[in-house]
Amino acid sequence: MAITYDQLNAQEILDDLEKICKTEAVCGGCAGKECLIGYSKICTKICQRDKVTYVFEGQKNMPQYDIRGGYDEFETLHGIAHLLSQCRSCKSGHFDNCIINVVRNCLEVIEFGEEQEFDGEVLPYLMRMGQKNPSKGAIILEEYQNKKNRE
To answer: How far, in Å, CA of 129 to CA of 133, rounded?
Structure first.
C-alpha cells in the first residue's frame, strides 16, 4: 500500500534536503529544477501544497545531468535512509512518481552516479546497496535501523 498524504513527513524530507544543499553562496544562486536538490525541494513543496504524495512526471523531469558534485556524503546517505523509513514497501503497488521514490532517486544520482533498482521493497534494496557499495550500504542500513528504533 502506497504512502498516504497523512503519513508523509514532507518537513523531514525538506529538512534533510536543506542539510545536503550546498547553498546559493556556494553555487552562485539556486539552479532550482536544474539541480537534483533544488528539484527535490520543488517536488516536495508541490506535494505539500497540493496534499498529494506523487509528482506528475517526477521521474521524467529529474535533472539527470546535474554533475555539480561536492554534496555531503553522510547527509545524503542519511537522507536516503530517512526516505526509506517513510516508504511503505508497496511492492507491486510501487509507483515511480511517488515523492519518496523521486527524491530517493535524486539522492542516488548524487551518491552513486545513477538511480538504483527499487522494486517496491525496502529490505531487498538495503541488501543490494550493501552488496553494491558495502561502506555506503552500511551507513544507509545503520541510519535506517536507528530511525526505525527512534519511531
So the answer is: 6
Q: Read off the C-alpha cell for 150.
A: 527512534
Write the DSSP assignment of the chain as a string of letters: -PPPTTT--HHHHHHHHHHH--HHHHHTS--GGGSHHHHHHHHHHHHHHHT-SB-TTTTTTS-TT-------HHHHHHHHHHHHHH----GGG--TTBHHHHHHHHHHHHHHSS-----S-HHHHHHHHHHH-HHHHHHHHHHHHHHHHH-
13-109-141 Cα angle (round to 5): 60
pLDDT at 69 over 80: no
Name the nearest CA neighbour of 12 among 121, 147, 133.
Answer: 147
Predicted TM-score (pTM) of the model is 0.93
Cα 10 to Cα 45: distance, rounded to the nearest angstrom: 8
- Show the CA angle centred on residue 137, arms to residues 136 and 142, nearest 5°: 100
